Request: fold
Amino acid sequence: MAVTVELTYAMGKVLGVDRFEVENASTAADIIAETKKRFGAKGDEFEKLTRVATIAVNGVLVSYRKGKSTRLSDGDVVSFVKAAAGG
Amino acid sequence: MWQCVAMIKGYAGRTLEVDLAARTFVFKPLDEEIARLYIGGKGYGTRLLYDRTEAGIDPLGPENPLIFATGPLNGSVAPQSNRFAVVCKSPLTGGIGNAACGGSYAYGMKRAGIDVLVVLNRSETPVRLDIDGDNDTVEFIDASDLWGKGTYETQEILGKKKHHAVIGPAGENLVLYAGIVSNERIAGRTGVGAVMGSKKLKAVTVRGKRKLEMDDPEAFKEYTKWVREMFKEHPVLGESLKRFGTAGIVGTTQARNIIPTKNFQRGNFDQALKVSGEYMEDHELVGVKSSCIHCPVTCGRDVELEGVGRVKGPEYETVALMGPNLEIGDLKKVAEWNYLADDMGMDTISLGAVLSFTMELEERGMLESGIHFGDPAGVSELIKDVAHRSGLGDDLADGVMRMSRKYGGGEFAMHVKGLELSAYDPRGSFAQGVEYATTNRGGCHVQGASMYLESVGPLTINPQNLKLKAEIPVAQQNLASAINSMVLCIFTTYGMIPKQIHDLRPDSFAHKALSFALENSGPLFLKAMQMKGKPMLWWEKWLTYITGTPLSGGHLQEIGGRVFNLERMYNLREGVDASTDTLPPRMLNESTFKGMESGHPLDQLLPRYYRNRGWDENGVPTAQTLERLQVAV
Reply:
């Protein structure tokens, strides 16, 4: 099973990529753990940024489901979201 | 010289009416009753339009007045307060037309001692107006030498130190979504620039040295100092808008699956971050001079364009509708098209939607346009053709609704009431969908901005259930109508959610509790918004210090509701009725979310919205509603 991870711009600057694929992650929490593991020292900085972001699966915030324990399916897009205002 | 007699403070106390056919002008006293009921700006202008025109006029005929209206906050140094409203019958929708614009023209109007300028009839030849408010004169100057010139060159020739409102070739050629430009800002929506072009009016210049009279200038000054400090610390007004401009929201709408992609076929584009405000800051930003006068937020971006120099950079709507919506991930290209559209004097929201509609027609083999999703080739040339109504550009100049009548594709023609949709996909933002469907000028996001409360701001509720989705739009549309009548920048409302709430961790108990309370507030939400008390928020206090009349949030909900219902009555009079309170078929029938079987559930929300508004089942304001709000029709 593979899911696509989309990062915020700030996270992307830290890790040097803005989207990548993760295999065998079954929850949103697994994504954070796997990303942290994959990027070594940069992963710690990434984890800090996740604390001020929410997570969406296919555009829907996990807070409306089971939080970081929300189950993932093959082909899902997991995004990190920050509050913003535009016009 | 005209002397203002005891008026409500904050107003210049006079209007100016100009007859372009007779080449005459007259200053008249401001109608205090209209000012008390409708404040100014959009509200005052709508009242004049309703009262002074017959039903069924030709929007591009001489009988359509073009009304430039300011409000009591304009001319002050209050942050985000130098905007003017333009009101007329829309040539794009056939209903109420209005647009607001920053820049410096509103400031100039108030310095010239003019609250409202009404332009009547039309000139036979190109003309411009030079209004000297200190000597009470209006010169009608031949503008043949300026006709055909872009908005930037026109303003350059007229002189940078004066305050202008001008049109470009798009307005001259009656492109139905042409706008009116002041400095580097545009009154973009509903085709107000085409109405100006139909009058052969190239530019209006205002000047004067009059000062704004306030009821309590000391209190205003002290309080404004506090507001400026508060803005500096605010995460949106002092941080994200300042650093990234409005395009700082790209990553959020992308993550929420609501950024228009490929003519709204999707809500996610894999190159979206390459056109984001953060990317702009890192790679393109050279300054913020293009921001509005006296505004500490400075959301305007300056970028460098090869062969042109330093120009205003694109904001979110342009970035989204000319970037992901066309499957373009090249910020330089978007900046180039944005500059072209501004110089030609065109609304980039409508233009972006027209281009994506054309690309989808091309993809489906319904039109040979030569432009394709994901390919910038031919787009710049087509934009120029639109502005000059040349070749295929002549069709594109009529907007998506009319194009779909000619070429088909109504199911993917992204407009409401003829006005092209803004860049928040309502399938992931249900309240915003109700707002699009019911906003009097058509599918627009800044006549309410419901998406901020439900899907992009710091206190998001679930934007895909029915809770509060027929209540948020009512409160937000009323608030925006009041804001557009003062005339303030709608972005000031982003400050309503204080820093302390922004600072809450999204997974904290307090954050979850606040979101839960908001989502489940039900009918209490509207009741709370409508409570009249003391002025609390900055715009309420500014109005109070300037005019001397205490106005609270509840009072402004009432005034905004009055403006909104008058607009509705205008639309009904012009035949723009409840059948137009809908969304494009793609939004209703096609899902962009996994597990979601259809699109936006508008049919389940609209009846409740009508009830909240005090309208009958046909979407007509009841007699009691009109009486309660003192809407004379």
User: Anything to note?
Assistant: The CA atoms of residues 265 and 550 of chain B lie 48 Å apart. Residues 553-573 of chain B form the longest helix (21 residues). Residues 245-408 of chain B form a domain with the Aldehyde Ferredoxin Oxidoreductase Protein, subunit A; domain 2 fold (CATH 1.10.569.10). The mean pLDDT of chain B is 96.
